[in-house]
């Protein structure tokens, strides 16, 4: 199945990418968030997309989730997803040191591709229900959070702990960044921005305020 990168083109307002190879972690969290269900049998070869609505600070947000985790195309398409994405969930398992080790490289790649140290990011330590098999101390997650300036949550897809919170936090960051961008002086056609760009930004603001949308790839 071809990657559904076209979702980003159809949704021009806000988009976000899920940057992880540990596919089942993301897919299980996504299923809990969208459908409020736990998947016992996971097929990592299936690409799927989801659509749901949520309230973020009194604003109605349409969230489109394109779950490409586990597909053969994901690694090859990663840079494209990072280019089009505006926010990222970086998920690891608290029972797997290797999954945590991958996050630093992913963040470096995101910052390089976006050329922005302040990209909206949420760090998620999943499998919080498996405390007896934890190998990543909670303090380690918070240490990385402080270093990167990104919020850290410990979640459990099985117990549905902090599942909603990570998506809402990411959407909130994206909305705030979009607000700052659209309301900046560039929106008035100032230095570095011609009138055509200013008109595009004003049109983007009107559309976003009417029905803000986020995409997670």
From TrEMBL:
GO biological process: axial cellular bud site selection; bipolar cellular bud site selection; cytogamy; establishment of protein localization; maintenance of protein location in cell; positive regulation of Rho protein signal transduction; regulation of establishment of cell polarity; small GTPase-mediated signal transduction
A Gene Ontology cellular-component term: vacuolar membrane
SUPFAM superfamilies (UniProt xref): P-loop containing nucleoside triphosphate hydrolases
InterPro entries reported for this sequence: P-loop_NTPase (IPR027417), Small_GTP-bd (IPR005225), Small_GTPase (IPR001806), Small_GTPase_Ras-type (IPR020849)
One Pfam family from the record: Ras
Alphabetized UniProt keyword annotations: GTP-binding, Nucleotide-binding
GO terms for MF: GTP binding; GTPase activity
NCBIfam families in alphabetical order: small_GTP
Record-given protein name: Putative ras superfamily KREV-1 protein
């Amino acid at each position: 199945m071809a990657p559904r990168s076209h979702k980003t083109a159809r949704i021009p307002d806000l988009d976000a990418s899920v940057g992880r190879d540990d596919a089942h972690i993301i897919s299980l969290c996504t299923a809990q968030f969208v459908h409020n269900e736990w998947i016992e049998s996971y097929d990592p070869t299936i690409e799927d997309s989801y659509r749901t609505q949520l309230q973020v600070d009194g604003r109605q947000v349409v969230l489109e989730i394109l779950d490409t985790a586990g597909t053969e195309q994901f690694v090859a398409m990663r840079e494209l997803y990072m280019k089009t994405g505006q926010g990222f969930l970086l998920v690891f398992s608290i029972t797997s040191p290797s999954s945590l080790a991958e996050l630093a490289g992913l963040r470096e790649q995101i910052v390089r591709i976006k050329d922005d140290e302040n990209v909206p990011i949420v760090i998620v330590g999943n499998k919080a229900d498996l405390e007896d098999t934890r190998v990543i101390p909670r303090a380690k997650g918070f240490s990385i959070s402080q270093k990167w300036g990104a919020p850290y949550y410990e979640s459990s897809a099985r117990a549905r702990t902090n599942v909603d919170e990570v998506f809402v936090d990411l959407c909130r960051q994206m909305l705030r960044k979009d607000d700052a961008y659209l309301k900046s002086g560039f929106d008035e056609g100032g230095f570095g921005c011609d009138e055509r760009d200013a008109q595009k930004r004003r049109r983007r603001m009107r559309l976003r305020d009417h029905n803000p949308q986020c995409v997670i790839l």
